Structure formats: C-alpha cells, structure tokens
Amino acid sequence: MKKKDGFSHKLGSWLDRDNVAGYVFILPFIIGLIVFTAIPFFTSLYLAFTNYNILSAPKWVGLDNFKKMFLEDDLFWTSFKVTFKFALIQVPIKLTVALLVALVLSRSTRLTSFYRAAFYIPSLMGGSVAIALLWKQLFSPKGVINQVLGFFGLPDSTAWLGNPKTALGTLIALGVWQFGSSMLIFLAAIKNIPQSYHEAAIVDGAGPVRRFFSITLPMLTPIIFFNLINQVIGAFQAFNSSYLITGGKPLNTTLYYGVYLYNKAFNQFEMGYGSAMAWFMLLIIAFFTALIFRSSSAWVYYESEGR
Amino acid sequence: MLMKYISPSMSRRRAVSTTIYHVLMLLVSFLMLYPVLWLIASSFKPNGDIFTTATSLIPAQSTLEHYIKGWQGFGGYTFTVFFKNSLFVAILSAIGMTISSALVAFGLARIRFKGRNVWFVLMIITMMLPGQVMMIPRFVLFNKMGWVGSYLPMIVPSFFASGFNIFLIMQFIRGIPRDMDEAAKIDGCSWYGVFFRIIVPMIVPSLVTVGVLTFMGSWEDFMGALLYLNKPATYTVAYALKMFNDSSMSDYGATFAMSTASLVPVLTLFFFFQKNLVEGISIQGLKG
Q1: Domain of A26, in residue numbers
Q2: What is the full DSSP assignment across A97-166?
Q3: What residue of B is the nearest CA neighbor of A279?
C-alpha cells in the first residue's frame, strides 16, 4: 500500500470521525433546511407584519394585515370556511374508503395486484393538470356523468361545476377518487398484523365482524392516526383542483384558502397580506395536528404499551 | 389438512362467493379507471363524436388528427419543446433528490454523531410544515437571485434532500445488519467507503423508488411552473397543457390528446416500477 503523506492522512482520519462524517453526510439537509426552509419560514413571519409588493422595500404595519383579515376581508372568511368544509368532508370519506378497500384487498388472490394497481393509479395522477381538465369535462352539463344519469332515467342536466350546491362536492369527489396511497399504507399495516391473533380469536369463536373491531381496527389506529394527520395537512393546502377546474367559482363556493392566498400574493402583489394568511394557515394546521395528537392517547393503540 | 373436511356443498359455496368477489372487484376497478379510459378513448374520437357518444369507450371512428393537431402546441412552440423541458427538469430533480437523500439517510441511520437526534426531529418537523408558508419568501428569495424565469427554483431545492425521501431510505438502511458496517470499519474502511461499497449497492431499490417518485412529482408539478416560468419557450408539459387548453377552448379532442400524452411517462414508469412504488408508499406509514 502506498504511504500517504502526513497531512492528507490526518485530514482523512479527521473526516472519518463520527462527529465529522455524520455532519458531512447530512450537510445537504442542513443547507437545505437553512436556505429553503428556515430563512423563508422566518422571513414569512416578518413579512406578515408588513406591506410588501416586491418592488419596494417591505413597510412595517404592525397588526394591520391581521386586523384587515379578521375584520374586513369577507373573502378571507369565505375561503377559510370553504377549505374547512372541504377538509371536514373529504378526509373522513377518503380514509373510510381507503380502509374498507384495503380490508377487501387484504384477501390475496391471483388478481390482487391488478386490483391494487387499478385503485392506486388515480392517486398517482389525480393531481395532474390532465386529470383536472378531464374532470371539468366529465362534470360539464353535457358530460359523461350527466349522460350516465340520463341513461338510468335520473335528472341529467345538472351543471355540476356551475351550481353553488354541487361544485365543491365535485372537487371532493376528485379528492376521494385518489384514496389509493392511503389504501396502500393501510394494506401494508393490515398484512403486518400477526396471523396468530386472528387464529386465537377464531378458536375463541369470534366472527369476522368481531375480529375486525377487536383486532384489526385497534391494531390499525396508529396508521389511521398517521394518515389522518397527513390528509388534514394536505387538504388545508389544496390548490390545483380549485385553481384549474372551477377557478373558485361559482359564487366563491370553491375558493380554497390556498387559491385566495395565491391571488392576493401573486396577482395583487399583496405579499405581506399573503404571508399573514400563510401564517394563519400554519397556526390552524398546527392546532388541528395538536388536537389529533392530544386526542390520540384516547384512541390510538400502541402494542408495545401492553394492554 | 383442513381441506379434507370441507364438504362438496361448502366448497361450492366458497366458489360462488369467490366468483361474486371477483365480479364486484372487477366492476369497481373498471369504475375507478373509467375516467382515464374515457380520456384515452375520447382522444381518438372525431370532435363531433366526443360528447354525442360519451358513454362509449370504443371509438366508432378513430382518428389521430387530435394528436397531430395538438402536438403543434401554441405560440410557435410544439409539445416536443414542452416534453424536452419537462424531461430536463424532472430528470435533474430526480437525480439530485436521490443522491442527496441517500447521503443524509445514511448519516442519520448509521453514524452516531453529536446532535443526531436533534437533526432527526427537525427532519420529521419539515415533513409536516405546510409548503405554502414558504411559498412567498421563497419567491422573493429566488427573485432576488435572478432565478425567476429559469428552471433553477424547480430543480435546485431537490439537491438538498427532503424529509419523506430521507425517511424512506432510512427504513431500508435499518434493514441491513450493522455487523456489515462494523466488520468493514475494522478492516480499515472509512464511513465513505462503507456508504459507497456496502450500503449503496444494497439500497438500490429504495433509490429507484425515490427517483421515480421525484420524477413523477416534478413531471406533474403545476404550482412551480405557475410561479416561476414566464416564457412559452420554457413551459413544462403540465403548464403548457393548461395554457393550451385556455387557447383552444372548444377543441376538446386536441386537449384530450395532449392530456393523454402528458400521462404516458407517468403510466409507463408505474408499469415498470410498480413494485418499488407500492413498497415505497407502504413504508411511508410504517414508522421505525
């Protein structure tokens, strides 16, 4: 072996110390965290208390943005309510469907991988522009949905996306259609439940329904918890479907918080106001995440804690 | 075996219930895929037929005119340009994300350095931070750097790893026995040698998963293009599709054809890497 000179040998062994090598490996994360997360995060907090149109320097206005938001801006409250309603309806339906389908799919057959693919594909591309444009056509007055309804003799002239009563529901349907990735997570968790638990319960005479409520469901609560947090965070940030399909119309019934925030910041260049809205959303998401966490001790079952 | 004790009538009942199961599952699968199948079918139908034969999935007359016409794009730029742009952004993002996330995952999963737990917790927190809080200041930052109008804001952040991908690769690394690193260390291998010679060859499936998921996310990214791209020559497929639809409102066929074309890369990757994707998504929920 070739002998290294003293300096590079020292450098080499210094770089190989645990405390040095560890930081060398995680360096990309540290830089990214500082530049693309931490600095923007705190800048955003500062901007929330300013008037800023990106062309001239931010001007400190104290709590004005928040006052305007809470007291004067009706559209702010509209978009908040729309998003809240969207999350409140979509998340439970999506997770229930994902769980039920995962249960049905946990029975292994030769066709299981085909079914799994068919259920997963929508969540792979449901957020794309292509599907948004398609959804617009499917639910247009002369679209497929109305034609199928007409075929069965049902009312077939609803303007799904033009009617304030149905527009949000149409977007929720697009979200629920993408239950596939939550389903895969449930499916993996169901397969992880030791078969012996079920066998023991069968010996004790428990039927499938009893086994679901006494074994499967409790064992799945940590995963339900995880999916719930993920889906709530995702729902509050929804953007594409409203922006691309309805543009927030009709009568602002589909004006998501994210879309209104975008309009304020990037169409009207009220970046200070937009930042204030973003921080309010962060607090709301933090509040719900904390609520789910606090409530979790009551309903999430961790096996390691014993029974 | 139990089978011996199952009477003929019981096995017949089981066969019937299995058949019902598959009929129902096939029906539901069909309904789930129906919108996509309809999109594909409509892209081959003459414009006059799309809504008059909307419930039929098999075009009575099929035509390629929508693809030929749609591919011409708009503003003097064809979809060849938009596909090239998207490929450029998505491939570079995927490469950057895979390399950076693998490095960070190894550091956090294997090396016992001071402050490791703090960084791990910070990583988990970043996974829960809503991206929209960072949207405005990031735009301001990139604007100051003169990056707006280029692909840099859509590519560069990928080179600095992301919580979810780090977590996914960490789960794979944890499955490799530590004895292997320790044996290599005793033989005089450095941490860098352990990573490149021992760990990397064993976590290839997870690297493929991260690469494919990043590629797909970048391919479908609409928000990034909406914020940062301002010249048609630079549009990615996702953004071009929206602009194309706005410019040719009544030409449904062409929009459907280009929509279908835009989904081809995603579907192709899905069929080739289905196993990796399913595994990757499943791991997301199984905390270590």
Answers
A1: 6-47
A2: HHHHHHHHHTS--TTHHHHHHHHHHHHHHTTSHHHHHHHHHHTSTTSHHHHHHHHTTS-----TTTSTTT
A3: B133
d(CA B175, CA B109): 10
Query: Which residues form the domain of B45?
Result: 2-63
List the single residue in B with minimal CA-CA distance to A54. B140
Check pLDDT > 70 for residue A307.
no
Q: Name which of A87-101, B68-82, B238-252 the model is least confident about.
A: B238-252
Are the beta carbons of A119 and B32 separated by less than 8 Å?
A: yes
For residue range B180-229, list pLDDT tens digits in order: 888 988 888 899 999 999 999 999 999 999 999 999 999 999 999 999 99
Amino acid symbol at A227: N
Bridge-partner residues for B77, per DSSP?
B74
Return residues 108-147 of A near B (CB < 8 Å).
109, 111, 113-122, 124-125, 127-131, 133-135, 137-138, 142-144, 147
Q: What is the pLDDT of residue A98?
A: 96
Lowest-pLDDT range of A111-125, A263-277, B6-20, B250-264 = B6-20
Give contacts of A133 with chain B, Cβ < 8 Å: 241-242, 245, 255, 259
Residue A210's φ and ψ, nearest 5 degrees, are -60, -40
pTM above the 0.95 mark? no
Using the Cβ of A154 and the Cβ atoms of chain B, whether some distance falls under 8 Å is answered with no
* Count of structural domains, chain A: 2
Amino acid, res. A121: I
Q: Are B269 and B141 within one domain?
A: yes
Cβ distance A41 to B133 less than 8 Å, yes or no, reads yes
ipTM of the complex: 0.90
Contact A137 B252 (CB under 8 A): yes
Contact assessment for residue B42 and residue B50, using Cβ atoms and an 8 Å cutoff: yes
A262 contacts on B by Cβ (under 8 Å)? 135
Put simply, the answer to whether A282 touches B266 (Cβ < 8 Å) is no
CB distance A121–B33 less than 8 Å? yes
Task: State the pLDDT at residue A79.
Answer: 96
Same domain, B80 and B20: no
Residues B112 and B18 in one domain: no
A189 and A240, same domain (yes or no): yes
Contact B55 A151 (CB under 8 A): yes
pLDDT digits (tens, 9 = 90+) for A19-31: 999 999 999 999 9
| B26 and B87 inside one domain | no
* Res B55: pLDDT: 73
Determine the distance in angstroms separating the CA of B148 from the nearest CA of chain A, rounded to an integer. 13
Contact B21, B14 (CB under 8 A): no
Q: Is residue B131 part of a domain?
A: yes
If asked whether residues B169 and B237 sit together in one domain, one would say: yes
Give the three-state DSSP class for A58: coil
User: Mean pLDDT across chain B, nearest whole number?
Assistant: 90
Judge if A249 and A214 occupy the same domain: yes
Structural domain count of chain B: 2
